[in-house]
Specification:
The protein is built from 13 helices and no strands. It is mainly alpha-helical and about 270 residues long. α2 runs antiparallel to α10. The chain is globular.
Length: about 270
């Protein structure tokens, strides 16, 4: 079960911690709005995956109806609070549901087109590349994490278990945290381009949370591959092939997820 907390807990804590930091500049107020929306989406996804567990867990019904009602209510409430916090941060009380939806759609489309660096450069000796290097890496991390947010939702088993390696029951619900990490990576990409990456407490918390989460995730994956669960690539035994057949059945996707998390660790250094 450690895999269920290794990445999700640090990223979730870093997001909430960043939202509690002082809102001192334009870049941090923009990040705050993005993070509030990301928390709202992630919370609603978790509420849905709890209330309709069998639809998200390949037919497994994991919870009693009392637990479903309680947990989904908590997640939904958290999502609504984040949504109201986003609306109040815009600075106007005259926005209708239509104008809010329009703002979210336009912002989402604009963000997707902005994942790449604003000033790409391929010359390794160029000062422009050096100053924009982290933005390029964070943009690539954003694209990778967005892809791995969608992959478990649209893919059948065993591909749906990547990147979280949580099996049929939890891989799709865990997409909420992968999405949250993608938004955090995009916020770090934007802050790197603005030159505020090392200056703001809010950004520092996001970077540390992403680094800790990805490091723990990679560490657990390496331990599984080595064979701590009854054998593997280095230790004797068949544990790796018997306990984690889904991960080994999709080696390309598994390797890709390892690369993305390794890039997160590198960018966060």
């Amino acid at each position: 079960m450690s895999q269920a907390f290794a990445f999700q807990l640090p990223v979730g804590y870093a997001t909430i911690s960043a939202l509690s930091s002082p809102d001192s500049t334009h870049i941090t107020s923009t990040i705050r709005r993005r993070l509030n929306l990301a928390v709202a989406v992630a919370s609603m996804w978790l509420a849905s995956s709890t209330a309709f567990a069998s639809k998200f867990a390949f037919g497994y019904d994991l919870y009693t109806w009392k637990l479903k009602a309680f947990a989904s209510g908590i997640h939904a409430t958290n999502g609504l609070l984040a949504l109201f916090a986003w609306r109040s941060s815009i600075g106007t009380n005259k926005m209708t549901i239509r104008s809010c939806a329009s703002r979210v759609i336009r912002g989402t489309v604009g963000s997707l087109w902005s994942i790449g660096p604003s000033k790409p450069c391929s010359d390794p000796d160029s000062p422009q590349l050096i100053s924009n290097n982290n933005a390029s890496i964070w943009g690539l991390c954003t694209a990778g994490l967005l892809w791995f947010t969608i992959l478990p939702i649209v893919s059948p088993y065993p591909l749906a278990t990547v990147p979280t390696i949580l099996g049929k029951r939890l891989s799709r619900p865990a997409s909420a945290f992968t999405f949250l990490s993608a938004v955090c990576a995009f916020c770090l990409k934007e802050s790197a381009e603005s030159g505020a990456e090392g200056d703001e407490n809010q950004i520092s918390r996001l970077r540390k949370g992403m680094m800790i989460g990805s490091t723990l995730h990679l560490l657990l994956l390496m331990l599984k591959l080595i064979g701590v669960d009854g054998g593997g690539l280095l230790l004797p035994g068949r544990g790796l092939w018997e306990v984690y057949p889904a991960m080994l059945a999709v080696p390309f996707a598994t390797a890709s997820s390892i690369i993305v998390h390794a890039l997160v660790c590198f960018a966060a250094l």
